[in-house]
Design brief:
- The complex is a heterodimer of chains A (767) and B (1096).
- By secondary structure, chain A is of the alpha+beta class.
- Helices cover 32% and strands 22% of the residues of chain A.
- In chain A, the strands form six sheets. In chain A, strands 8, 9, 10, 11, 12, 13, 14 and 15 form an eight-stranded mixed sheet that branches.
- In chain A, a hairpin with a 2-residue loop joins strand 25 (624-629) and strand 26.
- Chain A starts with a helix and ends with a helix.
- In chain B, strand 23 and strand 24 (822-834) form a beta hairpin.
- The radius of gyration of chain B is 30 Å and the shape is globular.
- In chain B, 37% of the residues lie in helices and 14% in strands.
- In chain B, the strands form six sheets. In chain B, strands 11, 12, 13, 14, 15, 16, 17 and 18 form an eight-stranded mixed sheet that branches. In chain B, strands 4, 6, 10, 19, 21, 23 and 24 form a seven-stranded mixed sheet that branches.
- Chain B has 1096 residues and is of the alpha/beta class.
- The chains are: A alpha+beta (767), B alpha/beta (1096).
- Chain A binds chain B through residues 172, 174, 177, 180, 182-190, 193, 195, 199, 202-205, 248, 253-255, and chain B through 557, 559-560, 567, 569-577, 580, 582, 584-588, 602-603, 606, 609-610.
């Protein structure tokens, strides 16, 4: 083990885990004094091309309250064929299959390099994947056309055995029956009436057929894997029918008078989709994919009325408590989300419209079920098309990068308890011995359900050290945590991935230096940010900022080196040096600032922030800025107004946007057409370089970012200017006239000012 | 004789006796006796028993028809005896009573008394019997009846009961009473009677000339006996036995004062007696004698007739009691006469207060200022000037209005008048429309409204000078100034929401539950619709119909179809949310047939396939209508729903129904609930439909109870029609259903109509009957209105009328034509006013009166026990006739029944109404049938009610084969059937072909293509197509009968003595009915008694 950086990286690659602290404070009191909680970012399904799953089932600890999985940290008595659980110290017999076990003949799960291992569960029924399209028809003609094409295209990407279903909605909701021939048949529901799951199933005639089906499945899963309702059919059977059906989809025929919005029954459509799956395929991997081109305007879940003169709610309205429908709508979608999660299905929302579409109200549908949320301007954009296509991308094995119905269970050694999780999950409310009474994020449980997840889905998991100060932990002993993720693989296999990690305990009093060195500021920043965003969902913005500030100050007080009341003496060690800057950008980020963002946008940003892995999260917090110039190879530069120079091309990646910005001079050159002149071919290459890099990012990212190509003075340059640290503004004129960058017209404080204040506060006794 | 017919239910028999008393008294007389009707029968029975015994004679049994005569003779002896008794008693009563011995107890007194009085019977009686007691007329009547009752008994014995044939008597009916089996024979009598009577008649005849008065054989009960007795007096009756001459002769031409006639003539009776006796004997004697035996008691009761008991009572001089059926007013004769006298000349409407020819007469109408009788018929064309008079007469003042009636091609349909943008010219105050009765004054600058007398300015563009008579010069150029009926083009002010209407739409809503599929209905219907859609109604010379069509199928859920022309395949949209119905699509649901033909054809091809394997047996109903209505609402048009429905809607949904059929309720106070809808849902729904102009036509195909009373609420209130095909089977009912369907789809309809009847000061429309909805007290709202739909309007006085100015009616109907044009149809009618009751009675129309009374009664059953309704009818009828007798007829013996000429058929028709299925259901009549008929009658016009209540019976082989005209009808009585002939019977809904047992083999061969009578399949519904004159003629006749009626009549071939014959006999309305309805003769006696009571 060389440096912590390498250690951290190695751990992340192997286990998909990053801890805020890699040495754990050994007492509760000390742990709380360290400000940043002991927590980790876990990417449960991190892609591990080098880790083939083992084809047998894990060995569980026999203590009913423990059930930990045999892992490399367990002590094994090869003679007696016994192993001791490292969490509860229960001694267990190996199962008969392990009779041949010995020191030289170890099963994989006992080898240290398999701290993460994946098992394939052979028993139990395999159920097909299910894709239920829920399509808004209140779209413009070309939008609808584009959407239809995307949907038709997607059919070819689905596994042939997958079941598909189609629900369309506008003023009414139509559930299309796919099994019929000759005449296309659909069940129609009024868009204004909320129906219970039972009513929906009765009306769809599912009540009776559902019974035999469920009985039949376990019996002969292989022969009748696709016994299904009429509304969900294997794609290979109804490919043509569905393609035609999609082709014939018409815009919602009900007239929309001048000054009105089309009546859109999103709430009921979703409710029906959820009810349909609930009745036919509970606890089977299923995706409800909602495509909507505008806000729900009627029925339960309506977000705005159909009068165009009444605009959809803004943050301003929400603060003023003027958003008439918000609470009710939110409640409706929350209830749906809970039901969906309980059934193990997930909901994706693809919202493409220039105005808001009610993501604020609907966000819980994706956030609680692990579905995707995609926001775009139109279905007829590459942003949507490619993003949508990317959902069906495949991994190195040719499997879809999606998994369903996962349950994440966390087990801790007895000095630790789990306080909660933040991510696309819901609590399963399993109270175990390792559940803390204090909640951070979604807490009070040791198990969470993640209905839909992909290899990058990442949860923040927060722990609490409960070891009392007066009961010191023996030197050198380690605390352990085990993550057990059971899920349905896209190949429909049931799998269990087990990650067991351990860290040393350290006494804060004596080993503060070591602990400092083991701080992972990136992980800590993201974990703190998640906490902040989680709070922001329920609290007022300023409170959250104040809380973040206080945490930062306390951290600086704890770990900074300074002389009291002397701000200039303040220093932070390397392990902490970037942390304040992250916090600065976090404060300015759209996750916490709603100014200039619509409620939908905020929801969208927060949605992604709460599920992306560490790298992406960091980009979101502090965008990356690259500079391209004749002065040298492309280089990352400070996210600062001083980086905006006339002779540079800047490439900014904020995760949601890719901005290419041509400096003033470059822009003039380009206008003058130098790039077309053979003698200035190097200029052409310079122009091309950021484009190529941008393409690379665009290709890799989900969802596809908004691609902005702008130049000095261009209106879209605002995307860049709003992100950089406003070190030069109209208020500090010293920069004027210098070649040092562009002033930003803002009253926001710059990083320098922020740091100055921070230092001052950190060194004062006030806090 | 008639008496016999009704076959009283067994039970009654049992008790008869006790009842008896009641009978006399109350039953007929309407006296207190509680159990009126039944009892009466009972009474009969009662007697009967006696009879049987008496008659010991197998004789009685004598087979059918065996001509009564012979039998009679044989028995005669006995009979005579019986008679004798009668005679003494005066009466027939005697006899009857005798039978009753037991009954006596209670009844005895009554009897006694009556009898006594009976004696008194006027001349008539006296002649006969030594009027022991000088009972008053009434008494007589009473007595008579009684006797009548008994009488029946007698007959049995007399004739050989060949039940069937011998219509005679009611006895036939008796058969029911098991015990009395013997009775049946009684019937024989009839025949005999006839014979006997003849003799009698003669005498009578002479008398009768004038009036159609009948002698009231008062003794209702007694049927013949009584009748006869009475006859003499009444002569009228007896007289023309065979030829009916009486009536005929008298009535027709001679417009004598109705009332009067009777009396005069009657005088003659005496002679009769002698004759009659013989007759009597024949008939009754047998029975009597015997019967009596047992019931010695009888004798006692009757003072005079002690004899009874003693059968032997010989010879009471033949109490001539029998009423000869031929002597009583014959509908057939009246119809024939009217045809002959009024059929040739066109009816010119120019003169106020004219009584038009009967509905059964073919005549042309020339509109000269009053609406044609095809549009409006009144109960009376002379309205009493004061309400006191009206009350006294009790003649309802009503008009039966058929605003869109179809006219024969020779008559011009109403002209369409366009008054331009300002709309039709109307009175400013009462809003009456310009019509020929408006009075122009001040040189034509103003006009005075003929309804409210308000003086209005004539708008400049409408100004015209007046000629010297005060008429506008252009009067003959303007339909609204010269014609009784015309149309105005409505302006936008007359349209809903101030928008001109869109063309209407038809929506076909097809039940596809298991039942519908299994019977093949769906397949048949879909196949038919494919071609039928080419014949949607269109207006004038339009190339294609403006009507759009839509399709819905349903069972427990609804399936809408998108048949937009641009689609390659129809799309089905299922709506399962039946609790909260809505229309799932807009565009593509209602389409133009020609544009979407391919898609529609494909849809109709697929519907039977899609549901071929359905297991769904439950259906919904209200949501279906709701859906159709919502669809029309969404399309902003009026229209019509065609519902094809098979079963009681028991699926969970609004309007869900329970099976509540309970025959035990019949004849209880709760019987009315069978006619009332189960739930209020349908009324509410109907109201919404009417508001939307959504008319609902319902085709029912039930296998069991479907609660027609509830299901028909919406069709009823929206001006729609209900068709019912019980136990539908494609093979048997296809033709009828398709024919009805075609006619229903193709018929011209008006939509979203509002009708208002305005009257001149003094009278006012107070009540409306028909299939429509009213949201206030004046406007009749009809979501749909076709040429057959009729509204009956009742008027009451609210002031004095003036003889000079008369009374005016203006019926204005605002509607949307099937091309979507908004129009107003105006019908004007001027009536006379009178200060003399005689004028009223002279200008009445019985058919219309019956139409009104039937509708009134049929509505009454919703709220009152059926018995009450029946009693009300009887009372009203008696009052009408009594008033005439009192005020208009010349003085005459009280024993005579005197009827106004115009109303001489009132009793027979009323009796038909009383014994119709609704008011007196037989055992085989289901609750649904009654509800169905009830609602059918509600919107029938006069012609329909006429034939419905008094079916036409046409002999087929009597007239020469080459004759192309319809053979003359015969009276609907078994007596009139000859077993060597074949008859057609129709009542507008049913068509029977009755084949006599001894019909010639050749005839059988040429009609049925089988060798003999016995090989004719019973229940056959189609005649084989054979190439011989007879077959062609009969089939041609059937076709022409069907063409005359608005619904296809399914043919049923009934063989004499076959089990189906019971059904057929139910339509022989002059006979006693199985369900207890009285025979004509009995009823007449009954009526006479009532009248006498009123008069006394």
């Amino acid at each position: 083990m060389t440096t912590y950086l390498e250690f951290i990286q190695q751990n992340e690659e192997r286990d998909g885990v990053r801890f805020s602290w890699n040495l754990w404070p050994s007492s509760r009191l000390e742990a709380t004094r360290m400000v940043v909680p002991l927590a980790c970012l876990l990417t449960p399904l991190k892609e591990r091309p080098d880790l083939p799953p083992v084809q047998y089932e894990p060995v569980f600890c026999s203590r009913p309250t423990c059930k930990a999985v045999l892992n490399p940290l367990c002590q094994v008595d090869y003679q007696a064929k016994l192993w001791a659980c490292n969490f509860c110290f229960q001694r267990n017999q190996f199962p008969p299959a392990y009779a041949g076990i010995s020191e030289v003949n170890q099963p994989a799960e006992l080898m240290p390099q398999f701290s993460t291992i994946e098992y394939v569960v052979q028993r139990g029924p395999q159920s097909p994947l299910i894709f239920l399209y829920v399509v808004d028809t209140c779209l413009e003609e070309d939008d609808l056309q584009a959407l239809k094409e995307s949907l038709q295209m997607s059919l070819s990407l689905l596994p042939p055995e997958a079941l598909v279903g189609l629900i369309t909605f506008g003023r009414m909701v139509q559930v299309h029956e796919l099994s019929c021939e000759g005449i296309s048949k659909s069940y129609v529901f009024r868009g204004t009436k909320d129906l219970t799951a039972k009513q929906i199933q009765d009306m769809l005639g599912l009540s009776k057929p559902a019974m035999p089906m469920q009985q039949a499945r376990p019996v002969q899963p292989q022969e009748h894997p696709f016994v299904s309702s009429r509304f969900l059919q294997p794609i290979h059977k109804i490919d043509m029918t569905l393609t035609d059906l999609l082709g014939e989809l018409q815009r919602d025929p009900w007239p929309v008078t001048q000054g009105k919005r089309p009546l859109r029954s999103t709430g009921v459509a979703l409710s029906i989709a959820v009810g349909l799956l609930e009745g036919t395929f509970p606890n089977t991997g299923a995706r409800i994919m909602l495509f909507t081109g505008g806000p729900p305007t009627q029925g339960p879940g309506m977000v705005v009325g159909d009068e165009l003169k009444v605009p959809i709610r803004s943050w301003h309205d929400i603060e003023k408590d003027n958003a008439r429908f918000m609470k009710k709508a939110t409640k409706h979608y929350e209830m749906l989300a809970q039901r969906t999660a309980a059934n193990g299905h997930c909901i994706d929302i693809y919202a493409c419209a220039l105005d808001q579409t009610g993501l604020l109200e609907m966000k819980c549908c994706t956030n609680l079920t692990g579905g995707h949320m995609v926001m775009g301007d139109s279905f007829n954009t590459s942003l949507f098309k490619q993003t949508f296509q990317r959902i069906f991308s495949k991994d190195f094995n040719g499997d879809f990068r999606m998994a369903f119905g996962a349950t994440l269970e966390v087990k801790t050694s007895r000095e630790l308890k789990v306080a909660g999780a933040i991510g696309p999950c819901v609590s399963l409310n399993v109270k175990g011995p390792c559940v803390s009474e204090n909640e951070l994020g979604v807490g009070g449980t040791s198990q969470w359900k993640i209905c839909g997840l992909d290899p990058t889905s990442t949860l923040g998991i927060y722990f609490e050290v409960i070891n009392q100060h007066n009961a010191p932990i023996p030197q050198g002993s380690r605390g352990a945590i085990q993550f057990v993720t059971q899920y349905q693989h896209s190949s429909t296999q049931k799998r269990i991935r087990v990650t067991t990690i351990a860290r040393n305990w350290a006494d804060v009093q004596s080993q503060l230096q070591l602990i400092e060195a083991a701080f992972d500021q990136e992980a800590a920043a993201v974990l703190m940010a998640r906490l902040g965003v989680f709070r922001a969902e329920s609290e007022e913005g300023p409170d959250v900022l104040r809380w973040l500030d206080r945490q930062l100050i306390r951290l600086c007080q704890k770990f900074g080196q300074y002389n009291k009341e002397d701000p200039t003496s303040f220093r932070l060690s390397d392990a902490f040096s970037l942390y304040p800057q992250f916090m600065f950008h976090l404060r300015r980020s759209p996750f916490l600032q709603v100014f200039n963002n619509s409620p939908d946008e905020s929801s969208y940003y927060r949605h992604h922030f709460a599920r992306q892995d560490l790298t992406q999260s960091l980009i979101m917090i502090q965008p990356i800025l690259y500079s391209y110039s004749f002065h040298g190879p492309p280089e990352p530069v400070l996210l600062d107004s001083s980086s905006i120079l006339a002779d540079r091309i800047l490439l900014m990646d904020t995760f949601f946007q890719i901005v290419i910005y041509l400096g003033e001079t470059i822009a003039q050159w380009q206008k003058a057409g130098y790039q077309d002149m053979p003698e200035y071919e190097n200029f052409k290459h310079l122009l091309q370089a950021p484009l190529d890099d941008a393409q690379e990012i665009l290709q890799a990212r989900f969802p596809m970012p908004r691609y902005v190509h702008t130049e000095h003075g261009g209106s879209q340059a605002r995307f860049l200017l709003s992100k950089v640290n406003p070190s030069q503004t109209h208020n500090n004129l010293y920069a004027w006239g210098q070649e040092t960058g562009a002033p930003i017209l803002t009253d926001d404080v710059s990083l320098q000012v922020f740091m100055d204040h921070l230092k001052k506060l950190a060194v004062s006794n006030a806090c | 004789m008639n008496v016999n017919q009704s076959a009283p239910p067994v039970p009654p028999f049992g008790q008869p006796q006790p009842i008896y008393p009641g009978y006399h008294q109350s039953g007929y007389g309407g006296q207190p006796s509680s159990t009126a009707p039944p009892t009466s029968y009972g009474a009969y029975n009662g007697p009967v028993p006696g009879f049987q015994q008496t008659p010991p004679l197998g004789v009685s049994r004598a087979p059918p028809s065996s001509g009564a005569p012979p039998a009679s003779t044989a028995q005669a002896p006995c009979g005579q005896a019986a008679y004798g008794q009668f005679g003494q008693g005066d009466i027939q009563n005697g006899p009857s009573s005798s039978t009753v011995p037991t009954q006596r107890l209670p009844g005895s007194q009554p009897f006694g008394s009556p009898l006594a009085p009976a004696v008194s019977q006027p001349a008539v009686l006296q002649p006969y019997g030594p009027p022991p007691t000088s009972a008053q007329v009434t008494a007589q009547l009473a007595g008579m009846q009684i006797s009548g009752a008994m009488a029946p008994a007698p007959p049995p014995s007399g004739l050989g009961y060949g039940p069937p044939t011998s219509l005679a008597s009611a006895s036939g009916s008796f058969p029911n009473s098991g015990p009395y089996g013997s009775y049946p024979q009684g019937q024989a009598p009839p025949v005999s009677q006839a014979q006997g009577h003849p003799g009698v008649h003669p005498s009578q005849r002479s008398a009768p000339p004038l009036a159609s008065s009948f002698i009231p054989p008062t003794s209702g009960g007694p049927r013949m006996p009584s009748m006869t007795g009475s006859l003499p007096p009444g002569q009228g009756f007896g007289a023309p036995p065979m030829s009916q001459p009486n009536h005929v002769s008298s009535p027709p031409p001679q417009a004598l004062p109705p009332g009067t006639q009777m009396t005069g003539p009657q005088g003659p009776p005496p002679p009769m007696h002698s004759l009659p006796q013989p007759g009597y004997q024949l008939q009754q004697n047998g029975s009597f004698g015997p019967g009596r035996g047992p019931q010695p008691n009888y004798g006692s009761p009757y003072p005079g007739a002690p004899t009874f008991g003693s059968q032997p009572a010989p010879p009471q001089p033949l109490p001539p009691k029998r009423l000869d059926p031929d002597a009583i007013p014959s509908p057939i004769q009246v119809i024939e006469d009217d045809r002959n006298t009024r059929g040739s000349e066109p009816f010119v409407t120019g003169v106020r207060g004219q009584v038009p020819p009967l509905v059964t007469t073919n005549f042309l109408v020339k509109d000269q200022g009053n609406a044609s009788p095809r549009y409006i018929r009144c109960t009376s064309y002379n309205i009493p000037c004061t309400s006191d008079m009206a009350k006294q007469a009790q003649v309802p003042l009503a008009a039966v209005i058929k605003p869109l009636a179809r006219l024969p091609p020779e008559e011009a349909s109403p002209y369409v008048v366009d008054h331009g943008e300002s709309g039709p010219l109307r009175c400013n105050r009462c809003k009456a429309y310009m019509c020929p009765f408006m009075q122009f004054i001040e040189g034509g600058r103003r006009f005075q409204c003929c309804f409210c007398s308000c003086i209005n300015d004539v708008p400049p563009q409408y100004f015209q000078h007046l000629d010297h008579t005060g008429r506008r010069v252009d009067a003959y150029d303007r339909p609204e100034l010269s014609l009784g009926s015309y149309e105005f083009l409505a302006t936008v002010d007359y349209c809903k929401n101030n928008k001109f209407p869109s063309p209407p739409a038809f929506i076909f809503m097809i039940d596809v539950s298991y039942n519908a599929i299994r019977t093949g209905l769906v397949r048949l219907l879909c196949e038919e619709l494919k071609s039928l859609l080419d014949y949607l109604p269109r207006e004038g010379g339009a190339e294609e119909s403006a009507i759009h069509v839509g399709f819905v199928t349903y069972n427990k859920v609804l399936h809408f179809y998108n048949v937009k022309s641009s689609l390659a395949q129809p799309q089905m949209m299922v709506v399962s949310d039946v609790a909260d119905m809505f229309v799932p699509l807009l565009d593509g649901f209602l389409v133009n047939v020609n544009e979407s033909r391919a898609v529609i054809t494909s849809l109709l091809d697929q519907i039977p396939e899609i549901f071929a394997d359905t297991r769904e047996t439950e259906t919904v109903f209200a949501p279906v209508i709701q859906a159709g209505m919502e669809a029309l609402k969404a399309a902003e048009c009026a229209g019509k729903l065609f519902l094809f429905h098979t079963s009681l809607p028991i699926a969970e949904a609004p309007g869900k129904l329970k099976n509540r059929d309970d025959r035990k309720l019949i004849n209880t106070d709760k019987e009315k609930t069978l006619f009332q809808p189960q739930t209020g849902v349908y009324q509410t729904l109907a109201k919404e439909c009417v508001a939307q102009g959504c008319c609902v036509d319902l085709f029912l195909f039930p296998n069991q109870y479907v609660d027609v009373a509830t299901l028909s609420v919406v069709p009823q209130l929206t001006g729609g029609s209900v068709y019912k095909y019980a136990c539908f089977q494609v093979e048997n009912d296809q033709e009828r259903f398709l024919s009805d369907l075609r006619r229903d789809v193709q018929k011209v309809v008006g939509f979203d109509a509002v009708m208002r009847v305005r009257t001149s000061t003094g009278i006012r429309a107070v009540d409306f009957f028909g299939a429509f909805y009213m949201s206030n007290t004046t406007d009749v709202e009809l979501a749909g209105l076709d040429a057959n739909k009729t509204v009956t309007v009742e008027f009451k006085h609210d002031d004095r009328l003036n003889e000079e100015s008369g009374a005016l009616l203006q019926c204005a109907l605002l509607y949307t034509s099937c091309a979507g044009q908004r129009r107003l149809r105006i019908h004007n009618l001027a009536l006379n006013c009178c200060t003399q009751l005689a004028d009223l009675y002279r200008n009445c129309e019985t058919d219309t009166l019956i139409n009104y009374m039937a509708k009134f009664a049929y509505r009454g059953v919703l709220n009152s026990p059926v018995k009450t309704v029946r009693d009300t009818l009887i009372t009203q009828c008696a009052q009408i006739l009594a008033c005439y007798r009192k005020n208009c007829a010349s003085p005459s013996s009280a024993g005579q029944l005197i009827l106004p000429e115009c109303m001489k058929l009132l009793p027979v028709y009323l009796n038909c109404v009383l014994k119709s299925d609704v008011l007196q259901p037989g055992a085989e009549v289901t609750t649904d049938d009654r509800a169905y008929v009830r609602q059918l009658v509600t919107s029938m016009d006069v012609a329909e009610t006429n034939v419905f209540f008094y079916p036409r019976l046409l002999p087929l082989t009597k007239s020469p084969i080459e004759s192309t005209t319809e053979p003359p009808a015969v009276r609907a009585s078994e007596e009139r059937l000859s077993n060597g002939d074949i008859y057609l019977l129709e009542n507008g809904l049913n068509l029977f072909l009755w084949v006599g047992a001894s019909v010639q083999q050749g005839v059988v061969q040429s009609l049925f293509n089988v060798a003999s009578f016995s090989q004719i399949a019973s229940g056959l519904s189609v005649l084989p197509v054979l190439d011989n004159p007879l077959s062609k003629k009969v089939r041609g006749l059937i076709d022409s009968l069907r063409a005359q009626r608005s619904r296809y009549m399914k043919l049923t071939v009934v063989k004499q003595e076959d089990k189906l014959e019971v059904l057929f006999k139910n339509f022989l309305v002059e006979d006693k009915s199985l369900s207890g309805g009285e025979s004509y003769v009995d009823f007449l006696c009954h009526m006479h008694k009532e009248i006498r009571q009123l008069l006394s």
